[in-house]
Amino acid sequence: MLRLAILLMLLTCSTSYIRKKPLINTSLKVNRSSEISLKIVEKQHHLFIGRCSNLDDVLHSENIILNNDGKSQVNATIRMSVEGSVYITCVKVLDQVSDGEGAYPSFVGGGVGHNYVIFNVTAAYGRGFNFYVEIKGYSLEESGERHV
Q1: Residue numbers in the chain where pLDDT is lower than 50
Q2: Does residue 108 belong to any structural domain of this protein?
Q3: Is residue 109 part of a domain?
Q4: What does the pLDDT read at residue 32?
Q5: What pLDDT is attached to residue 28?
Q6: How far is residue 111 CA from its own chain's centroid?
Q7: Does residue 99 lie in a domain region?
Q8: Domain that includes residue 91, residue range
Q9: Residue 148 covered by a domain
Q10: What is the DSSP string of the chain?
Q11: Number of domains in the chain
């Protein structure tokens, strides 16, 4: 069985206090006769790295949850390493908060072709995060020289 080492590399909390909810509607004036209106969509914030195949094995899956006391903003860098000789083909970071209030994950490094993945997480002020992470790929020792 492949062991997984998880390292929360960086976790910062700001101590500034915000009392108003941030503006969730933005308008952009393109020219005199047209206007574009943007709104935050109340959907989950997922991150997909690589392309999954039916041939891929689940190397690891885990829930990563961080609660917040409501008095700070959480920014974290998460590194997940699969020990052993493996080739990651895809990573799914799935936001488990369905109302659009979840955190935003962003890719930093690793992933496809490596045995680790690094991603940043930025939560809304006063909120934590709840992600389900699934890492797929194959063992290089068992499959020989298989390449994608």
Answers
A1: 1-28, 38, 148
A2: yes
A3: yes
A4: 57
A5: 47
A6: 12
A7: yes
A8: 4-143
A9: no
A10: ---EEEEEEEEEE------SPPP-EEEEEEETTEEEEEE---S---EEEE---TT-EEEEEEEEEE---SSS-EEEEEEEEE-SSEEEEEEEEEE--TTS-S-EEEEEEE-TTSSEEEEEEEPPTT--EEEEEEEEEEEHHHHSS---
A11: 1
